[in-house]
Write a structure and sequence with these properties.
By secondary structure, the protein is α/β, with parallel strands linked by helices. It has one domain: D-Maltodextrin-Binding Protein, domain 2. The protein contains 15 helices and eleven strands. Strand 6, helix 8 and strand 7 form a beta-alpha-beta unit. Helix 3 packs antiparallel against helix 12. It is globular. Bound molecules: (2S)-2-hydroxybutanedioic acid. The site of (2S)-2-hydroxybutanedioic acid has 10 residues, from loops.
Amino acid sequence: MKKKLASVVLAGVMALSLAACGGATDKQAGPQAGDQAAGQGDQKKEQIVIKFSHVVAPDSVKGKAADKFAELVAQKTDNKVKVEVYPSSQLYGDKDELDALVAGNVQMIAPSVTKMVKLDPRWQYVDMPFLFKDEEHAKKFFDSDAAKSLLNGQALQDNDILGLAFWENGFKQFVNSKHPLKTPEDFKGLKFRVQAGKVLESQFKSLGAGSATIPFGETYAALQQGTVDGTENTFNNIDTQKYQEVQKYMTVSNHGRLDYAIFVNKPFWESMPADIRAKVEEALKEATDYELQMAAAENQTSYDKLKQAGKLEIYELSDADKAQFEKLMEPVYSEFSNVITPELIDAIKNLK
Ligand code: LMR
C-alpha cells in the first residue's frame, strides 16, 4: 500500500515556482547530484552540496556528529562534496523536514525516529515504555534485522527515502515546573510536551496526564510560557536546550528512548558518481561510529552538569518506583502492539 506524503506535492510545486521566479538562490538544492556535478567542457565541476537539516543545538550529540560527518566528507572527497549542516530548526523544523527531504529541498535529515510516525507507525517502537534495558540493548537493535526492516520499510521506498543508519541519543527523563514527580499520582492533571504520535499520548494518559505535540524548536517557549507544564527528553537535550532555565524538577526515569535514523533523498543519493558516493558512505560510517561511541558519555556529562548547576531538583526513581510506572503503562502495549507489530516488539525484547 502506498503512503505518499501529501504535502510533498505542494512543496515540490512551491520549489518549482520559486526557481521559476528566481527565488531559489542555491541551484544546488535540487535533488540530482548529477545536475550539480555536470561540468561543461573544461569548466571546473561544481561542488556537490548535501544540505543536512536538524533541529537540535550544534553542541548536542546529534549536532556534533552532523558536524563530524561534514568534516569527514570534505576530507575524504577532497572538497568535491560539501555537507552544509543547518542546526536548531534553522532551515526546517519538525513539521517540515521530512517533506523537505522528499521534495529534495534538503538531501539528508536525522530525525528522532518517533517523527517517522508520519510515514510508518512502527517507528514508535522507540516510545514503548521500558522496552529497552540499557544502551547496549539499543545498540544491538540498531544492528538487527528488525532495524533493517524499518530502514527498508515500504512507506520509505514509496517516498524515495533511503534509510542509511541509526544514531543514538539516550533514555528520556521527565522535567516539569509544578512539583517533584516521584509516583504516578504526581502526574495527574499535568500537561506534557511530546514529539509526535499516539503512543506518547497514551503513555501520559496512562498516568492521568495530558500531552500536546509541539515542535522541538518551540518547546523552550512553551515551557517558559506555561503552555505545557513539562516534557520528557534526554539529559543531553535537556541540557543543550537549557530547559533547566524554565523547569524546576527532573525525574530520572529512563522510561523510554530517543534515538535517530539517517535518511537521504534516494534520487539525489543515487545520482552521485559511484566513486564519490562510496567516499561519502565511508564518511557516514565513521561519523556513525563516532556518534555511537560518544552518545552515552555526552548524556552522562549533561546529567553531571545539570546536577552541579543545582537549578533542577532531581529525583531518581528506584527500581520499585519504576515497577509501579511500568505496571501502569502496560495498557500502552495492549493498545499499540498491533500497530508497532508483535514481530518488532518481540524481536526487540529478544535482544535483551
Ligand atoms: C525532540 O523533538 O524532542 C527530539 O526529536 C529532538 C531531537 O532531534 O533530538
